[in-house]
Design goal:
Shape: globular
Order of helices and strands: EHEHEHEHHHEHEHHHEEE
Strand content: 15-25%
Distance between the termini: 45 Å
Bound molecules: pantoate
Structural class: alpha/beta
CATH superfamily of the largest domain: HUPs
Length: about 280
């Protein structure tokens, strides 16, 4: 496995490669990321994983500075998973001058996480577009845990004409149901034990909608009340249709329940897709 830090060397390494599957990450890899790499191995002759903590997508006062950087450990895990190339640029390499050209996210990015993380999806789309331009993959693999991110990246590819197949991989979970996330590492042991409450609430809403309830506002308000009573600060709990990430109409069957909430100083997100 080659570990490459510059755009020039990466382009030279990939020049003769015909089938590239890209896994963009911010590092601090866990089993969820490794599942993305394994999917990429099934889909491309050459798997490129990028590791870059993208300042542009962190809101002011966010966790950019404390986001864990664990390159040596990440490279070991990537090599084991069958990755061929790691692209780990420093900030100056990816943003050699102030990045004044930024992508404007679609309307669907203004709600849910976008409402609470100003500039987040603009930063995500900008770096992902840049990675697509540098790597020129035919496939790119993302986690379904970042459901809204995956949604806006699919829009990016459609609307900007990238010839890239976007693949979403199922969320990996701890045995108690907590979705794997690099941010779980911020949780104290008490918080870790309490953290499953978000996915439990989403599961409850999913079950109730599957059994015929369609008063989405009431269901989400009750989940918010439950989390708040347990000390969480809830950004949102919402049911949306999968097609447009819009409030479901009477004929919408393919749905997703999503939540974003703070446990202490840690912001967790999760979602469950279902048909009802
Ligand atoms: O999901 C992530 O880790 C990041 O948002 C991504 C897609 C690598 C862009 O920085």
């Amino acid at each position: 496995m080659d570990v490459i830090h510059t755009v020039g060397e990466l382009r030279a390494r990939l020049r003769a490669v015909s089938s590239i599957a890209l896994v963009p990450t911010m590092g601090n890899l866990h089993a969820g990321h490794i599942a993305l790499v394994e999917e990429a191995v099934r889909r491309g002759k050459c798997v490129v994983a990028s590791i870059f903590v993208n300042r542009l997508q962190f809101e002011p006062g966010g966790d950019f500075d404390r986001y864990p950087r664990t390159l040596a450990h990440d490279c070991e895990a990537l090599a084991k998973a069958g990755c061929h190339v790691v692209f780990a640029p420093d900030e100056n390499e990816l943003y050699p001058e102030p990045q004044e050209i930024l992508l404007v996210p679609p309307k669907s990015a203004e709600q849910l996480c976008g409402q609470f993380r100003p500039g987040h999806f603009q930063g995500v789309l900008t770096v992902v577009a840049k990675l697509f331009n540098i790597v020129a993959p035919h496939t790119a693999v993302f986690g379904r845990k970042d459901y809204q991110q995956l949604f806006v990246i699919r829009a990016l590819v459609r609307q900007m004409g990238y010839p890239i197949e976007i693949v979403g991989v199922e969320t990996k979970r701890e045995p108690d149901g907590l979705a794997l996330s690099s941010r779980n590492g911020y949780l104290s042991s008490e918080e870790r034990a309490a953290a499953v409450r978000l996915s439990q609430n989403l599961k409850r809403i999913k079950g109730l909608v599957e059994s015929g309830q369609r008063d989405f506002d009431a269901l989400c308000a009750s989940a918010t009340a439950d989390l708040t009573s347990a000390g969480w600060r809830v950004d949102y709990v919402a049911v949306r249709n999968q097609s447009g990430l819009a409030f479901p109409g009477p004929s919408d069957r393919d749905l997703v329940v999503l939540g974003g909430a703070w446990l202490g100083k840690t912001r967790l997100i999760d979602n469950l897709e279902f048909r009802a």
